[in-house]
Predict the 3D structure of the following.
Amino acid sequence: YPHTGEVYDLAWSQNNLLMSVSEDKSFILMDVDKKNSLWGLQDTSAITAVACAENGTIAYGTRQSFVRVYTKEGKHITTLQETYPITTLSYSKNYLLGVGKADGSISLWDLNNNKVIGKGNVNGACLSLSWEPYKGKQFVTCSENDNKVHIWKVL
């Protein structure tokens, strides 16, 4: 599964497919069992984060502050515009997408309506964001400057 640049992020789907994104501006969806690439694409800037929802919907984020959403078959669904480079992405069970950015800002997108339903900030770049897997009512973040894990609740 070759990339020509540094691989920035990986994600698994529910049906054992692996996604990778890279500084070479590429996204690749792989069938690990069959050892082949199913599909891939090139973007206009480095792709820095990737996430997969339970229904197979894929999102990836770029250094140019875009989040692009695709079906598992590779059909483009939507593009979300953010304000800073994307550093991390995570789907909740409720089809919310958490987006962490290089400036420390966090956006919660309701992908059913393509609207931001919540915002927050951490101290420094948001390095990781992860939803709790059972109810999708809280998530955790960490950042580059404060040596803490932050727990966020969604009402």
Observations:
- Residues 80 and 149 are 27 Å apart (CA to CA).
- The two ends are 41 Å apart (CA to CA).
